[in-house]
Amino acid sequence: MPKHSTPGLAALALSTFAAPLAAQEPMPVKVFIGAMFEIGENTGDRAGELQHWYERYWSETEAQDVPGAFSSMYCNDDGVCGAVLGMGKVNSSASMQAILLNPAYDFSQTYFMLSGVAGTPPSRGTIGDVVWGSWLVDYDLGHRWAPEEGEPGAPVFMPRAGYEDYRRFELNAKLVSWGVELSQDVEMQDSDSARQYRQRYPDGAAQAAPSVKVGTHMTGDTFFHGPGLSEEAQYMAELYGADDYMITEMEAAAIALVIKRLQGTDRIASLRGAVNFDQGHPDETTLEHLDPAPGETAGGFAETVENITLVGAPLVDQIVANWGDWKDGVPAHSGE
User: Which region is the signal sequence (predicted)?
Assistant: First the structure.
């Protein structure tokens, strides 16, 4: 073969290899929505935490496999991605880390919407409420003992030194303000069964119609119930200098720690809808509340999971539609 033909072959070889490399550029993710469980299919049946998000943003997309994650991931052409992360702190945070470390995606400017159902104390919330998290507090980091082994009426929790950097997270107040402002006129869904159930509680907050609220999300793998543990959660929120305890859930603080180590916390929003009270009404025991008789369960689940998306989607849409204003950080808004 003539020597002058060799450079041409080399250029052809380089171009052949360059094409697939260029196609592997990571996809920039503008918003990531993390749900914790889905009940059945992603659409067309009883909705869990992902379904309304899926129908709004990903019904025309293909599932993308992410090794190490709980489930497939979905992304649309606008840079909105989402997945079911799994229930509980370890499950969900392992999924989040697998997703963040996957080289197919660029999360360097991503906003994170951590979304799901939860419980609420009847003194501060009601079935169908949706609460923007201002603080995320880990319920499990510290020391606990049986009440009879301490001083009567005294708290049975004590923080342990060394957990200061990951037992609480104050979320970006500016981002929370955006979420509240954009969702303040949302028409919340409700049901007759939820209205009837609320009347079993004497608290004004419990009997009220669903609304958008702000407060601390308390993350614990233990599904704690009863007035005593509810009071303890409030005690912990005050102990850590956080806002009032509004939501009990199982994942947000753990997911936030994973995101913090890789991207920081300025772009995290935690959004939870209340589908149960964290304690029984005055005429039932905590065990009866946990294992209710037929007809004694709270209504409003279907309405609450819809409310979560109704409340959270305006922020997602605002970020995507005005990406030039958002890509470098949370912008100022009319309330400032």
Answer: 1-23
**How far apart are alpha carbons 191 and 174 in whole angstroms?**
33
- Which CATH number characterizes residue 37's domain? 3.40.50.1580
- Cβ pair 75, 110 in contact under 8 A: no
**Domain for residue 336, yes or no?**
no
Both structure tokens of 164: 């200061």
Query: Which phi and psi angles does 119 have, rounded to 5°?
Result: -110, 165
Whole-number Å distance between alpha carbons of 319 and 316:
5
Domain that holds residue 40: 28-324
Give the CA distances from residue 10 to residues 1, 153, 230, in Å, rounded to whole numbers and listed in that order. Answer: 14, 81, 70
Q: State both tokens at 243.
A: 């806002």
Q: For residues 69 and 85, give the distance between their C-alpha atoms in angstroms, rounded to a whole number.
A: 7
Contact 317, 183 (CB under 8 A): no
Under the banding of pLDDT at 50, 70 and 90, the label for residue 134 is: very high
Residue 14 tokens read as: 């380089």
What is the band of 101 on the pLDDT scale with cuts at 50, 70, 90?
A: very high
Give the up-direction half-sphere exposure of residue 259: CA atoms within 13 A in the CB hemisphere: 28
Torsion of CA 90, 92, 94, 99, to 10 degrees: -170
Helices and strands, number each (H, E), in the chain:
11, 13
Confidence check: pLDDT of 157 > 60: yes
Does 10 fall in a domain? no
Point out which residues pair with 273 in neighbouring strands.
117, 130
In a domain, 250, yes or no: yes
Q: Under DSSP, is residue 69 helix (H, G, I), strand (E, B) or coil?
A: coil
Work out how many domains the chain is built from and give that number: 1
Token pair of 134 as six digits? 């201002």
Look at residue 6 in the predicted model and tell me its pLDDT: 42
